[in-house]
Design brief:
Layout: H1 2-13, H2 43-61, H3 67-85, H4 88-93, H5 109-126, H6 131-149, H7 153-160
């Protein structure tokens, strides 16, 4: 709870809006201007995968941790990422052109909370699955989202690295 409260304060301090005034909870690919503004968007699927992969990695390293500690690790990790992702220097690093409909300008506070909820859900859903299944699902979701919206972890990383 402390991590989430700190995230809310920090996002407010960097000027992130509370949400969108669109009356929607989900942004579809044709509504790219709403990405990162509504509670959920196509990127939520990538956050779900991040939570699943993170759960498997942490559980592999710390098999003795109870479920609540594993979930706390996922939530704190997501919180740290959400704060870093919304810093102006990070937003600039993503390197979108100003006219790109997918141009990232930062998350709304509501979207950031939705992203963390997706990470936590992905972590819980991954618990009964074997690591190779989670890895396969992660690759499948990355490919599907990349083809669906023309963006994903790999595309964003390559853009941030200038590749």
């Amino acid at each position: 709870m402390l991590a989430l409260a700190a995230k809310l304060v920090l996002l407010a301090m960097v000027g992130r809006p509370l949400g969108c005034d669109c009356g929607q909870i989900w942004a579809m690919p044709g509504e790219a201007r709403l990405n990162s503004r509504t509670l959920l968007d196509p990127y939520s699927l990538l956050h779900l995968v991040f939570g699943a992969v993170l759960m498997k990695l942490v559980r592999w390293q710390r098999p003795d941790w109870p479920l609540w500690t594993l979930l706390a690790a996922a939530i704190v990790s997501s919180t740290v990422w959400e704060v870093v992702e919304n810093l102006p220097v990070t937003i600039a690093m993503f390197g979108y052109s100003p006219n790109d409909p997918l141009a990232y300008g930062g998350d709304s506070i509501l979207n950031s909370l939705g992203d963390t909820a997706a990470v936590a859900l992905g972590a819980v859903l991954a618990l009964p699955l074997a690591p190779p299944v989670v890895a396969g699902l992660a690759v499948a979701v990355e490919l599907a989202v990349s083809l669906w919206i023309g963006d994903g972890f790999a595309i964003t990383l390559s853009r941030a690295l200038g590749l």
